[in-house]
Design brief:
Rieske Iron-sulfur Protein, 2 helices, binds FE2/S2 (inorganic) cluster, single chain
Length: 163
């Protein structure tokens, strides 16, 4: 009977191993729970910001634009228009429902493929359902004479940039 309660050296080693195993399992579980909590806390504390591209874009050197030209930059959604009076930028987004317009040199007009609105090269609406003209954006030249456009700032029409 007395011998039954005594543990053999192998059994003691096995008991310690089991205890060590459960201790490590507990520490591991605690570590996982802490990591999960910290992850959620970081997501909760970090600002919910939507990163968008800058509204200010570089449309290339002014010498790339010949007089009496209308150049569409589809990736920037703008036109660079150079006339005798100077250079300016127009939004290429139709003011009706937001379709990308296209320059039609044979018509000498900017045309919207969606519902047929048409605009002059100065953005004035001449046909279609568009409620407003194409907006002019603030435009200036950099020190390297690159055409810079701030697509977030609308300016009154006919403010040509003399070049
Ligand atoms: S979106 Fe251009 S005319 Fe409708």
């Amino acid at each position: 009977m007395e011998q039954d309660r005594k543990q053999k050296p192998g059994e003691l080693q096995q008991e310690i191993s089991r205890r060590a195993f459960f201790t490590k399992l507990g520490i591991g579980s605690l570590g996982l729970a802490t990591a999960g909590t910290l992850s959620f806390a970081y997501q909760y504390m970090s600002p919910n910001v939507l990163y968008e591209p800058s509204p200010i874009v570089n449309a290339g050197n002014v010498e790339e634009y010949t007089t009496d030209s209308v150049t569409l930059h589809p990736a920037l959604a703008i036109y660079i228009v150079r006339l005798q009076e100077g250079i300016f930028s127009l939004s290429a987004i139709c003011t009706h429902l937001g379709c990308m317009t296209a320059w039609k040199p044979e018509l000498n007009l900017i045309a919207c493929p969606c519902h047929g609105s048409r605009f002059t090269d100065e953005g004035v609406k001449v046909a279609g359902p568009a409620p407003r003209p194409l907006p002019w954006f603030r435009t200036w030249l950099s020190d390297d004479r690159d055409v810079m456009v701030d697509r977030s700032t609308v300016i009154p029409p006919l403010e040509f940039l003399r070049v």
